[in-house]
Predict the 3D structure of the following.
Amino acid sequence: MRPSLLVLAAGTMATPAAAGTVSVTVPRLAVAEYHRPYVAVWLEPAGGGAARTLALWYDVKKSGAEPGTKWLADLRGWWRKGGRSLHLPADGISGATRPPGVHTITLPAAVRPGAYVLHVEAARETGGRELVQVPLTVPGAARASGSHELGAVTVTAR
């Protein structure tokens, strides 16, 4: 096999399969004391069932008497749906908080066709909380928007 084909094949195999993408907008807020929000993104079957956490952005490097995980309970909806039992940091899910802007998350290939609700929840120190719920049919696309802690949330699923 030629070296260039070998590199291409290796790169293809290393890339995880995806069923689509989720774009989450963290808005720029004009406040005196700005802190990046903790954000949880999870997917649930529309009729109810087990939630699957897709992303969790928090202060992963904060340790000591008040580690970053201490404040995850402020993401109340996610926490109640199974966040409290998640062992952190979780590979492929946990990550640092994000600055204002549009951030993309990959939907796992294991997401089967059907009706779901995508949840995006944000909580910010000295700020507010917000939960955006996006009804979604896979395959398909959907969009919703937050009003203060979150901006546009767009989902495209194959």
